[in-house]
């Protein structure tokens, strides 16, 4: 284990320089499998925050006019660098976040897809033109960058979610201030370094660290034009209110309680494998984790088979081979998950698989919780009402598809959902009637590829436009609409026109 003096400090990135913060407030970045302190991360001071905004504002003057092809080529280079450094990035991510190495590569890869998309920005940012809206008059639009934009990201996807944000914002011609999660900022920092190596100019991407104070400073700063947030509903609602009150654009992707419905005609083997992976994979710390399963009719007999699959999952440190479930992010997170399990028992749900206090040889101090399953879960119980964000699956029952859809639509969250069936008619009813952003039909975690945008309904999202894909081009640009007439000197001037017309 490293001694205190050997532990590195996480740097700030301001105006192209990696600098040591002058902050007096720091926190530890901890390996959740071992409790080893990996780094110290600063709470950025107000002066450092101002320096980051000044750098981004100054860089915007030239970056906004940099040729489309020049901007795009940086992202072509960047995707190549991410690929070349994949193993190192994944190892760093696993060390500070806990997920398995395969999952860490998936986290990076889903972000890499957005970088590839950013390299195609020329097609996406084009305006429109209508020729001859009046005689000799054309109307056309310019989709121009906004200025300094900011992103605030959660701990659970420290590669993918920062990459949802800054590549698209920067490719559109904006400059950016990123505030990663203070729980696992190291892989995000490494990705920022690679972006500089790929040719992102000084000041175009800046990274600051911290928690509540720095987030509030981002929301309030008059020179920041737009804020993208991904995280919990409580914090995201605060960010949305505070940032929009300060006149900014805001998009907040927030918490979840994702339900799957299983109809008795579903392919049993595929469905049970998908459910176990989506409920317990990444230790349940995915915003798209399936944490509630509604079994319809005869599908209720599949519970013992589902438990067999849950029991077969291997709990170990994410860096160890063949691990299925790593630790949760912190001791606090582990205690919270365990207390919600205790509450579920107290409120009358039946604990059919108890994952508390698993034995993990060699990692006795890790924040491990094994797969946990409740049956007989009802609305009103805390295990149902709260996002547990751990490997805990709540099983409910319904008599019909319509009853199951009604349960989901009555839940406040609308992030993701999935239906397992072989019936096209049932699938069509489901997609028509369900009020949820991401819908999977025999697909357990339907995170859209960047040709589309991530979305969300009700308490899972605030703001009209989602991250990445086509929608985020609108979010990160201001449309100007130009109506133009060019006089031909060879044609004699007409008389003065005082009516409102072209
Ligand atoms: P979080 O809300 O605690 O933290 C998110 C960010 O907000 C972090 O950068 C953190 O530093 C900052 N923050 C924390 N407390 C704050 C406060 N009081 N005031 C201002 N800023 C504060 O979320 P988390 O625990 O890091 O991430 C897990 C949550 O994120 C879950 O709810 C999960 O569902 C959600 N999430 C949603 C999506 C989505 O796309 N909808 C994706 C990933 C994660």
UniProtKB/TrEMBL annotation:
SUPFAM superfamilies: ALDH-like
Signal peptide: none
Name of the top EC class for this enzyme: oxidoreductase
Gene Ontology BP annotations: L-valine catabolic process; thymine catabolic process
GO molecular function: methylmalonate-semialdehyde dehydrogenase (acylating, NAD) activity
Pfam families tied to this protein: Aldedh
Superkingdom of the organism of origin: Bacteria
Record's keyword terms, sorted: NAD, Oxidoreductase
EC code(s) of this entry: 1.2.1.27
UniProt entry tagged with the keyword GTP-binding: no
Residue span(s) of domain Aldehyde dehydrogenase: 20-482
InterPro entries to which the protein is assigned, alphabetical: Ald_DH/histidinol_DH (IPR016161), Ald_DH_C (IPR016163), Ald_DH_CS_CYS (IPR016160), Ald_DH_N (IPR016162), Aldehyde_DH_dom (IPR015590), MeMal-semiAld_DH (IPR010061)
Family: Belongs to the aldehyde dehydrogenase family.
Record's protein name: methylmalonate-semialdehyde dehydrogenase (CoA acylating)
Provenance organism: Undibacterium pigrum
Lineage: Bacteria, Pseudomonadati, Pseudomonadota, Betaproteobacteria, Burkholderiales
